[in-house]
Amino acid sequence: MLNIIAEREVHPALAYNYVVLADRFIPSTLAYQGYGSRLGWKVLDLAEYAVDFVLPDLVIILMKDNPQPQNGDSPEKMRAILKGYREYAYMHPYHTKIIKVAEDPLVTHQKIVKAIEEHFQFQE
Hints:
This protein is mainly alpha-helical.
């Protein structure tokens, strides 16, 4: 699936110097398949290969205080998925930012904007 997205959407957009935003990409593949399904870090290598090693400039991971398992996942699997996201952030500190989700969506939005501005050093 990643290779199809990269081939049809990401690569052409980058060729035109467009900004590409994705709500799921390599970190979620690592978290869900690598950690949640216990396939390990080899998933990361395969995912990077699938997208022809086009990696994001910035990854923002939104974390809740007490996320609830979804889609029939067990609490243990949810903990493993969260660990996968944290490990990815730890291994890629220069382009990954974990943001704690606030009760107020506007506060979360402000945190995201700040992370983007800081990473890309936008000036007003």
